[in-house]
């Protein structure tokens, strides 16, 4: 199987924390949609004969596109045998008719950017919706006929407390979503929040508070019946993100649009994050992507990093097939100290990090990497 990711680089406005490639406003959307059609025609062969089972429209804010624009994009793609067709949306773009239009196109999953259910926190990071807008948008999506709904939350926001975070997680888990992605706020250079942090206008959440919030998240979602299947992701049984899971199990995927990444099973490619240059290249019939150079060791380390983020962990036999007995022996040697301390569990078939150590998994993974 294979997946397709399409990066929609348009937003109503830029959120204070966001460092994903996007541009404010809607100018140039028609040209961009034409460029997408040309890129798909040039690169569809990269997926070979693998059947496409998932499509993900991310961004940016894909829900900013009109129904006609979404129709054009969907008409280009192999949508007849999809298991999952996801569109990222903001609450302010949701209406009954809008969701019905999405369903008519083939979209069967919506990922909605909530980020917080506290209005003061939303205002602090430049979100355009209120907490009530988010709750009503989820209800509207369900009423219109889509029950597979994912929501995003961020912890460590300015003005956020453990109690306000607990309330956001609890309320959101009770409003009918089937999936939750929750991420720690990262202050990225070039964002407004980063500038505010450097200027002393806001304070970064302490490590202690971040750990408390992560524990609140895990405990609350478990009580609500959600499975913690990846470090940042929770799902009702059977409702995990099939598309995102492909990133963690090395399934090939094709990324279209400026800023999109691709992986054909052997080679990683990335489109530079430049909309005008992307459009110019597509109109001229030129390939726009750059190839990421990876050594065999780099590929093995990619497998380790992606697999060990998940509940299932790393399949020992697949890793042996990819790197041979020598690589497997090196991995076990690197993991030995963590196995003895209980921070890694290693069986005959798999190696994984227990959930209680996921928050510090980056430090563990650095020591696992093969050199």
From TrEMBL:
<dbReference type="GO" id="GO:0006779">
    <property type="term" value="P:porphyrin-containing compound biosynthetic process"/>
</dbReference>
<dbReference type="Pfam" id="PF04055">
    <property type="entry name" value="Radical_SAM"/>
</dbReference>
<protein>
    <recommendedName>
        <fullName>Heme chaperone HemW</fullName>
    </recommendedName>
</protein>
<keyword id="KW-0349">Heme</keyword>
<dbReference type="GO" id="GO:0051539">
    <property type="term" value="F:4 iron, 4 sulfur cluster binding"/>
</dbReference>
<keyword id="KW-0411">Iron-sulfur</keyword>
<dbReference type="InterPro" id="IPR034505">
    <property type="entry name" value="Coproporphyrinogen-III_oxidase"/>
</dbReference>
<keyword id="KW-0479">Metal-binding</keyword>
<dbReference type="InterPro" id="IPR004559">
    <property type="entry name" value="HemW-like"/>
</dbReference>
<keyword id="KW-0949">S-adenosyl-L-methionine</keyword>
<keyword id="KW-0143">Chaperone</keyword>
<comment type="similarity">
    <text>Belongs to the anaerobic coproporphyrinogen-III oxidase family. HemW subfamily.</text>
</comment>
<keyword id="KW-0004">4Fe-4S</keyword>
<keyword id="KW-0408">Iron</keyword>
<feature type="domain" description="Radical SAM core">
    <location>
        <begin position="1"/>
        <end position="227"/>
    </location>
</feature>
<dbReference type="GO" id="GO:0005737">
    <property type="term" value="C:cytoplasm"/>
</dbReference>
<dbReference type="GO" id="GO:0046872">
    <property type="term" value="F:metal ion binding"/>
</dbReference>
<dbReference type="GO" id="GO:0004109">
    <property type="term" value="F:coproporphyrinogen oxidase activity"/>
</dbReference>
<keyword id="KW-0963">Cytoplasm</keyword>
<dbReference type="InterPro" id="IPR006638">
    <property type="entry name" value="Elp3/MiaA/NifB-like_rSAM"/>
</dbReference>
<dbReference type="InterPro" id="IPR007197">
    <property type="entry name" value="rSAM"/>
</dbReference>
<dbReference type="InterPro" id="IPR023404">
    <property type="entry name" value="rSAM_horseshoe"/>
</dbReference>
<comment type="function">
    <text>Probably acts as a heme chaperone, transferring heme to an unknown acceptor. Binds one molecule of heme per monomer, possibly covalently. Binds 1 [4Fe-4S] cluster. The cluster is coordinated with 3 cysteines and an exchangeable S-adenosyl-L-methionine.</text>
</comment>
<dbReference type="InterPro" id="IPR058240">
    <property type="entry name" value="rSAM_sf"/>
</dbReference>
């Amino acid at each position: 199987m294979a997946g397709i990711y399409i990066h929609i680089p348009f937003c109503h406005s830029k959120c204070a924390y966001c460092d994903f490639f996007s541009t404010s406003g809607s100018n140039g959307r028609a040209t961009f949609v034409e460029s997408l059609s040309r890129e798909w025609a040039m690169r569809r062969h990269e997926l070979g004969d693998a059947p496409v089972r998932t499509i993900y429209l991310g961004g940016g804010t894909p829900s900013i596109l009109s129904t006609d624009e979404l129709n054009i994009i969907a008409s280009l793609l192999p949508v007849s045998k999809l298991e999952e067709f996801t569109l990222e949306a903001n609450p302010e773009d949701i209406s009954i008719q809008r969701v019905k239009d999405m369903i008519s196109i083939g979209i069967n999953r919506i990922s909605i950017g909530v980020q917080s259910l506290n209005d003061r926190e939303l205002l602090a990071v430049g979100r355009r919706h209120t907490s009530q807008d988010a709750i009503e948008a989820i209800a509207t999506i369900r009423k219109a006929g889509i029950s597979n709904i994912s929501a995003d939350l961020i912890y460590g926001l300015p003005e956020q407390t453990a109690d306000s975070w607990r309330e956001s997680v609890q309320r959101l888990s009770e409003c009918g979503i089937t999936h939750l992605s929750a991420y720690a706020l990262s202050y990225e250079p070039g964002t407004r929040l980063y500038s505010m942090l450097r200027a002393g206008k806001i304070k970064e959440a302490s490590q202690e508070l971040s750990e408390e919030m992560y524990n609140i998240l895990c405990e609350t979602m478990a009580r609500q019946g959600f499975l913690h299947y990846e470090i940042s992701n929770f799902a009702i049984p059977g409702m995990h993100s099939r598309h995102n899971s492909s990133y963690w199990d090395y399934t090939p995927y094709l990324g279209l649009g400026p800023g999109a990444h691709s992986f054909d099973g052997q080679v990683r490619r990335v489109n530079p994050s430049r909309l005008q240059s992307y459009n110019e290249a597509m109109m001229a019939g030129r390939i726009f992507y750059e190839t990421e150079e990876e050594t065999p060791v780099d590929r093995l380390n990619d497998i380790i990093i992606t697999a060990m983020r998940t509940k299932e962990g790393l399949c020992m036999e697949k890793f042996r097939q990819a790197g041979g007995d020598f690589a497997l022996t090196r991995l076990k040697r690197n993991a030995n100290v963590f196995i003895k301390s209980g921070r890694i569990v290693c069986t005959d078939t798999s190696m994984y990090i227990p959930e209680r150590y996921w928050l510090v998994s980056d430090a563990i993974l650095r020591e696992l990497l093969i050199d």
